[in-house]
Every structure is written in C-alpha cells, then in structure tokens.
Amino acid sequence: MHPRIEDYALIGDEQTAALVGRDGSVDWLCLPRFDSPACFAALLGDEDNGHWRLAPRGAKECTRRAYRPGTLVLDTEWETDEGSVRVTDLMPQRDKAPDVVRVVEGLSGRVTMRGTLRLRFDYGSVVPWMRRSDGHRVAVAGPDSAWLRSEPAVRTWGESFCTHSEFTVEEGEKVAFVLTWHPSHEPRPPLVDPYESLRHSVEDWQSWSDRCRYDGPHKDAVLRSLLTLKALTFTPTGGIVAAPTTSLPEEIGGVRNWDYRYCWLRDSTLTLGALVSAGYLEEAEAWRDWLLRAAAGAPADLQIMYGLAGERRLPEYELPWLEGYDGSSPVRAGNDAVGQLQLDVYGEVVDSLALARRFGLKAQPHAWRLQLALLDFLYEAWREPDEGLWEVRGPRRHFVHSKVMVWVAADRTVRAMEDDPRLPGDIDRLRKLRDDVHRDVCENGYDAERGTFTQFYGSDELDASLLLIPRVGFLPPDDPRVVGTVDAVRAELSHHGFLRRYSSDETAVDGLPGHEGTFLVCSFWLADALHMTGRTKEARELFERLVALGNDVGLLAEEYDPVARRQLGNFPQAFSHIGMVGTALTLFGTARDGEAG
Questions:
Q1: How far apart are CA 59 and CA 63, in angstroms?
Q2: CA 177, CA 99: separation in Å to the nearest integer?
Q3: What DSSP string describes 532-575?
Q4: If phi over 0 gives left and psi between -120 and 50 gives alpha, with beta otherwise, what is residue 452?
Q5: What 3-state class would DSSP assign to 12?
Q6: Burial 182-219 (b: 16+ CB within 10 A, else e)
Q7: Residues paired with 318 in a beta bridge
Q8: Are strands 452-453 and 518-519 parallel, antiparallel or unpaired?
Q9: Which end of the chain has the lower number of beta carbons within 10 A, N or C?
Q10: Contacts of 238 (CB under 8 A, 6+ apart)
C-alpha cells in the first residue's frame, strides 16, 4: 500500500518540485523541470522505481512535521528510544542546476540514521551507473547525471543498485546531504553550501510571504495556498502548473489518471485574481505575460493548456512499467485533452486581460489586438458544441458554462470600449454578440420547470460550473434563476457535504468508467455562490469544513473522498488552492481580527 496522498508534503525551487512522505522518503521528483521524466517515481510504482529515504534506523512515520512559517522549508522530526532528530528538506532557488538539500540535526540523545538513495531515471525505468568522484557518489544514465555528497562526509556504500549510508548524530550535531542534477554531457556545476542555502531559502520565502495583503480569518491556510501557487510557478516563464504530479487517481484503482504538469488557460482568471488581490502583482504580471505568449497565433488554434514555456504539443502516452498509485492504472505522461475545443477558454483569457487592466498591471500593446482576434473567432464559433471545461472524453455538447464564458468575452470587450472610446473595434457588433449569446443560453440552457440552468442544452444533468453564473455577472445573484440553480446544484451534486463537479454515473458525459471524489474547487464555488445569494453564514460554515480538509501541512489535492476521508487526484492542486484564496477573499476581504470586510 502506498502512503495516502495527504501523507506527502511539497518542496520545490519554482522550476520543479518533490513530494516528501511522513516516513522521510522523497517518492516523486522530476528533473530538471516539472514536466521532465521523474528520477524518483515510487509514488506511482514501488521503491524499485526510485526514492530517497532518510530517517532514524528502524523508524516508520515521523512524530511531527511542519513548514517553517512562511516558507517551503520542511522540518520533519522523529522521537525514538535513542533520542530525537530533525530532518530539514528544501530545494534552494537555483541559479542553473537543481539541488535537493536534506539537513539532519540531532535534537537529543544519540540517534542512528539510515539513508537509502535509489535513483531511477526516466520515470523509474533506467538504472544509472554509479561511481565515486571528488567525494561524491555520481549517477549517470543517458542525458541525466546526479551527484550526491554530504557535509561532513559520511560513509556510503552501494548495494542492490542503491546508495546506502548510516551514521549517528548527537544533540547539536548536523549532517547535510546535497543531491545535484545536471546534464551528463556538461561539467559538474558549482557546489552549493547546504547551510547557507537553508538560511537564504528561509529568508527569501519569508520575505515573499511578508508581502501578503490578506489579514482575515484562516490567514495561515490562505498564505499556505499562496505559497503553494508560488511553488507551482515555473519562474523562467511565469507559467503555473496545475499540479506537480501525474496520474494520481480520482478513484483508487480506477482509470481517471491524468498528467497535470502543464498550464491550463481555464485557471487564468481565478489565478490572476487571487494573486493581485493578495498583493502579488509581480507574479500576476508574469502569469499574464505567459498567457499572452501562449495564446498568440490564430484564434482557432487556441488550446486549453500549454507546456511550461507555451509548448503546444503534449502527446499522451502510457508508462506500463509503473503499476500506478495503489494499482490505479494506466500511468500517463502528456495529455491528449490539449487538442479539445473548449470555448470557455476564450472567455477566461479575455476576462484575465480585463482583470489585469482593472488592477493596473503594466499594459502590453498587443493585448488588445489579441482580444479582438479572439472575438472575431467567436462570432461564428460560439454556436458550435465543444468538450467543456472538464475535458470530457465523450461527444461534444452545447455546454452552458462554455456559452456563458463566450458572453463574458463579449461583455468584457464591450465594457473596455465603453470605458475607453479610443480603443478600436465594432462595439455595436460586439453588443449584438453579447445579447445573442445571453438570449440563447437563457432559452436553451435553462429548465423552467425545475428552475435551474443545466449542464448542456437539452440535458437533465447539472454541473458545478453553473455556480459561476453570478460570479462572472451573467445574471445578478438575486435573480430567481440564479438562486434556483444554486439550490439545485447543491441538492443534486452534494455528497456528504461537499460537491461533485457533475454526475459520474452511467448517464455522465465524460465517457469514462468509474466514479470520482468531490471536486474541491467546486465546493469553494458553492461557498462563493451561497455568500452572493445572501447565505453568508452557510458559506462560512462550508469554508470552515473545506479548510479542515488540508493535510497536516495545509496542502490540498484535486478531490476528496468524504466516505474514505482521504484526498484524491493530483497533489497539491493549484485549482483547489486558488479556490481557497478566492473564497477567503470573497468572504472576508482583507478583514482583520476575524471581522468580515
């Protein structure tokens, strides 16, 4: 059995990230980028697929662990019969080469530590050659090379294609390990000082955290979510990955296992809003600029997701040598949903550009031309069916959320031109598009008998994305159609107090077998909708329950199984943490002392 998904914590250097278990094992790490093949893949297989464990000899799970306040530096402590010890894990912000630093510190007594490093490149399939060089253990296979050293040096030995170590620490003693990756054809990169790296990392992360403007209830949870979004940012380009993992299942033992190590346009508006509202304008500008570069080109070719630098080709394939998390196969790399038509992304891009203008982000001269080009495409394309924001692998439908977001694209463009008549464009044509889409949705996407909007035209099913109708301004919150939709979605998609994104029974549109957990961001949307429709007390109660779902270090996966009481899906999930920040801001603003703003 694998550890539970929530048993992991995240460390990273804003270009890639690792998952560290409560047993002191790094079970997932892709080098040198989020989307690179993993060199530790035990998360999706077993120990033979690569991991790095550092813990007291004979110990299992740690006694306690926590991030240092305002940082991504993780302290894990064990209390044993011999004494107590702390392992501090981090990935320093890099110049060029990525490093994993693990500092062992004796807290009391005399503790014997045991280390096992099992490097397996290419998602756990390639066993490297090992050699010694200049006090290092060096692993080389094809394009990959990794160097391991300790300060002070401890004895290491090879056994069963692993590097083992055993040493003791007394109170106040420290031993630091550094694992450095670099391309095998290049010289070894300069050595980093692990203790200086630790000090600088703590200072840098805390300095970043001090910029957070949110000062309302659950500030620690909100800040942890913001830190997670920062950790999922690919700093060289400004792109933000949906998650650092692939194929963590939405159903244990099921086939709903996808690669989330890419950047989704659907997240753009909510991400931008969370960052600027919390005071992180530099990161918001970097994300907006990534969005503009990725979306550049023919509007008909706009994709729902891109690679870290805006790459367009993300071919999906399976990794059959990995058995999958708790037997959940197949394990996939790449994502075929990249080729889907999702009309909502046009609205999300335009809404993001409007949000950037409203918050005064530095203007980009080509942004307006891009916006008009996207609208030119939508004049005809909006009448077409699509796959919808959930990337269903069934037939295309006229999804209500997709049409609503087309309305958003037209509405935000009209408003911009009304605010600044100097902007070029045919405003009368845009107003007609806005009115036509609105009328079409209200006539074909609304079930008057049940008093609710539906998932797609002619459907009896509901969809949690309908909760966004008042948020984007399509209808006012007090409109009876909005209130009825919120009530219907809560009644029909609720599962033990949380929300599914849509029905996953035999009538579901996603074309896949099995089921999934409750979708966390949808429950945050429900809290927002309850607040907007005047039920703030219920909204806050739901928010409290959602905050409580975070693991011991405040991280959230994509989904939650309220029956088994465990997290599901890729982890940690940007969309869930964006929901955390957005709902906190909606409910409490920048409130102080627990009072609503």
A1: 10
A2: 10
A3: HTT-HHHHHHHHHHHHTTS-TTS---SEEETTTTEEESSSS-HH
A4: beta
A5: strand
A6: bebeeeebeebebeebbeebbeebeebbeebebebbbe
A7: 332
A8: unpaired
A9: N
A10: 283, 285, 286, 287, 288, 289, 290
Q: What is the DSSP letter of 177?
A: E
Tell the burial category of 517 from Cβ atoms under 10 Å away from its Cβ (0-12, 13-18, 19+).
buried
String of DSSP letters for 76-122: EEEE-SSEEEEEEEE-PPPSSS-EEEEEEEEEEEEEEEEEEEE--HH
Q: Give Cβ neighbours of residue 200 (< 8 Å, ≥ 6 apart).
A: 92, 93
Tokens matching residue 209: 């955290």
**Tokens representing residue 546 in the block:** 């959602």
Residue with tokens 């095998």: 184
pTM, entire model: 0.95
Nearest to 165 by CA among 126, 130, 114: 114
Three-state DSSP at 136 gives strand
- Please count the CA atoms within 13 angstroms of the CA of 217 that sit on its side-chain side: 14
If 0-12 CB within 10 Å is exposed, 13-18 middle and 19+ buried, where does residue 326 land?
middle
3 state DSSP class of 187: coil
429: three-class secondary structure by DSSP: helix
Q: Which helix (H) or strand (E) holds 168?
A: strand 162-170
- Max CA pair span of the chain: 78
CA 562 – CA 33 distance, rounded (Å): 33
> For residue 541, with 0-12 CB atoms within 10 Å meaning exposed, 13-18 middle and 19 or more buried, which class applies?
middle
**Contact in structure between 128 and 140 (CB atoms under 8 Å):** yes
Which segments within 379-511 are labelled E, that is strand? 446-447, 452-453, 494-495, 498-499
Rounded distance, CA 14 to CA 23, Å? Answer: 24
d(CA 188, CA 451): 66
CA separation for the pair 111, 96 (Å, rounded) = 35
Q: Is 258 exposed, middle or buried (0-12, 13-18, 19+ CB in 10 A)?
A: buried
Q: What is the pLDDT along the chain (597 residues), one digit of tens a residue?
A: 799 999 999 999 999 999 999 999 999 999 999 999 999 999 999 999 999 999 999 999 999 999 999 999 999 999 999 999 999 999 999 988 999 999 999 999 999 999 999 999 999 999 999 998 888 899 999 999 999 999 999 999 988 889 999 999 999 999 999 999 999 999 888 899 999 999 999 999 999 999 999 999 999 999 999 999 999 999 999 999 999 999 999 999 999 999 999 999 988 888 999 999 999 999 999 999 999 999 998 999 999 999 999 999 999 999 999 999 999 999 999 999 999 999 999 999 999 999 999 999 988 889 999 999 999 999 999 999 999 999 877 889 999 999 999 999 999 999 999 999 999 999 999 999 999 999 999 999 999 999 999 999 999 999 999 999 999 999 999 999 999 999 999 999 999 999 999 986 645 566 676 788 999 999 999 999 999 999 999 999 999 999 999 999 999 999 999 999 999 999 999 999 999 999 999 999 853 333 332
